[in-house]
């Protein structure tokens, strides 16, 4: 065999091996393009794995949701369910703690938080939040860590009551009358908007006194705020009044008492307006499953009260400071019960966070006649203050004292500040406002004269 033949055979052998290798690569593969089974499953069977993943996720989500739903109804039943309604538990639209994300939660807005977990910050609207009671409530809510939106038309409210919150990112103030609708995203609504003294609630500056301002606020304003609560799934608290009992024939007054109200009297626009507001709230609760809370507030006093609003405590304190006679209407034997504002705010917050609709009496069961109140004011401010008697006003209740047994039992609430302890705190505030304003007025007069 010569060299040329050996080279020819070697070349043919190499060519045949290359052709056989090429034929093997082009032959059909029962597992597809890849002979590696793991690569085959992940590359060519992706759809099957996708279906398996979706099925596993669906099963896991359903199991967890069912467990949470079962646990929620065992530990904290919805008050709507407790009342016999077949309505499903509501879902509340809320903002997360950072305020940038909006999500859904099946927990009620004011629900209790298990021990060991940080309480979620709520977004709360307070109508009438620039007023006497409203501003103290705003202080407590912000101190608790919530974000608060105050809605007020400043008919009786004052910006000075809230000026210490200006610049706080958790505080917003909107000049708005609740008789006009408003759209907000909130978790809870405290509806306090309404002039509460005869001097104010008998007057409507918009309609030139043709209709009681309190009646329109209580009816139209309450309807608007109930509608807002229904749209966003918020819990709604109505601040009603002891005036729904009228001139009571039952003493003390329990929540079961229907009252003795003159429907055509001079005070009826306020009395009947609040009774209507309670009716509307219960209609929304029964008809729409809205989480409603109703508080019936008895006489309340404290710093930031309007100085000349016609209410007995503010009248006596302002008159004593100004060295004027204390005006007592009638024989002075009418009785009232006086609670300090911090006690009321505590009761309102407990009611909102609790599981019971109400109504609840929130007041101090300590009972004073008007003469006894005048004597306490004399002790605190001026022992030489004189008492002047005047004819009694129409439909003035003779007795007013709350039965707070229900609030004690279901809310664990009762007032802790006595009249003799709380009154000096109010006197300090009034003294600063009365004589501070007077000094400013004198200075302005001197400047004008010059």
Automatic annotation (TrEMBL):
A GO MF term:
UDP-glucuronate decarboxylase activity
The record describes its membrane topology as:
Single-pass type II membrane protein
What GO terms in the biological process aspect are recorded for it? D-xylose metabolic process; UDP-D-xylose biosynthetic process
Question: Could you confirm whether the keyword Thylakoid appears in this record?
Answer: no
Task: List where the protein spans the membrane.
Answer: 47-64
Which superkingdom is the protein from? Eukaryota
Gene3D superfamilies found in the cross-reference section: NAD(P)-binding Rossmann-like Domain
Q: What is its EC number?
A: 4.1.1.35
Q: Which cofactor does it need?
A: NAD(+)
Q: Which Pfam families match?
A: GDP_Man_Dehyd
- Give the span(s) annotated as Disordered: 1-36, 70-92
Keywords from the UniProt entry:
Decarboxylase, Golgi apparatus, Lyase, Membrane, NAD, Transmembrane, Transmembrane helix
> Low complexity bias located where?
10-23
Q: What does the UniProt record say this protein does? A: Catalyzes the NAD-dependent decarboxylation of UDP-glucuronic acid to UDP-xylose. Necessary for the biosynthesis of the core tetrasaccharide in glycosaminoglycan biosynthesis.
Family under the similarity heading:
Belongs to the NAD(P)-dependent epimerase/dehydratase family. UDP-glucuronic acid decarboxylase subfamily.
Protein name (record): UDP-glucuronate decarboxylase
